[in-house]
Amino acid sequence: MVDIKVRKLINEAKSAREKAYAPYSKFKVGAALLAKSGKIYAGCNVENAIYNGTHAERFALDNAVIRGEREFLAIAIVLDDKSFPCAQCLQNLTEFDSDGKGNLKIITVNLQGNVRESTLAKLLPERFGPKSLGIDVRKF
User: Fold this and answer.
1) pLDDT computed for residue 74 by the predictor
2) How many alpha carbons fall within 13 Å on the CB side of residue 93?
3) What is the mean pLDDT of residues 58-74?
4) Cβ(59)–Cβ(31) below 8 Å
5) Average pLDDT value over all residues in the chain
6) Facing residues of 54 across strands?
7) At 5, phi and psi to the nearest 5?
8) What span, in angstroms and rounded, lies between the C-alpha atoms of 29 and 19?
9) Which among 53, 109, 35 is positioned nearest to 44, based on CA atoms?
10) Which structural domains are found in the chain, ordered by start?
11) Predicted structure pTM score
12) Cys-Cys link to 56, which of 2, 31, 71, 106 (CB 3.0-4.6 A)?
């Protein structure tokens, strides 16, 4: 993936973060997911009074899936600190790890501009997903 594509992905995630609705935690997150098709799908966290909100990564994933995407190359996440996605978000991304190898590139950027990169395989090494059940999500 060329640096220009990564920059665009990060900028889309920054823009999404600005739209986050986080009145309870004050922890705004934006995500942008790069599909194999080359299209980018954004999402932000959306909280509610019963603390049952939507994470930015899941929002971006749902945004892509509703448009028929099933294969992804990278996700950029912009957040306040230096963390990586939570285990729930990693598990949601695992659903579309079509070859089971965990090659999805995960890029996080904090508000100071520090960039960290990893992969799904490194962050969630013992993944249980569709491949574990013999399912190819690209067929659905």
Assistant:
1) 96
2) 34
3) 97
4) yes
5) 93
6) 46
7) -65, -40
8) 9
9) 53
10) 3-139 (3.40.140.10)
11) 0.92
12) 31
| C-alpha span between 65 and 134 (Å, rounded) | 20
Q: Alpha carbon 96 to chain centroid distance? A: 11
Query: Side chain identity at 38, as an amino acid letter?
Result: G
Q: Which two tokens stand for residue 136?
A: 């190819």
What is the pLDDT, as a whole number, of residue 138?
Answer: 86
Q: What pLDDT, in 10s, does the model give residues 125-135?
A: 998 988 889 99
Active site residues: 57
Cβ of 119: how many Cβ atoms within 10 Å?
A: 15
Q: What is the pLDDT of residue 1?
A: 52
Q: How far is CA 119 from CA 53, 59, 85, in A?
A: 25, 19, 11
Give just the sign of the alpha carbon dihedral 51, 62, 33, 74.
positive
Query: What is the rounded distance in angstroms from the CA atom of residue 45 to the CA atom of residue 100?
Result: 27
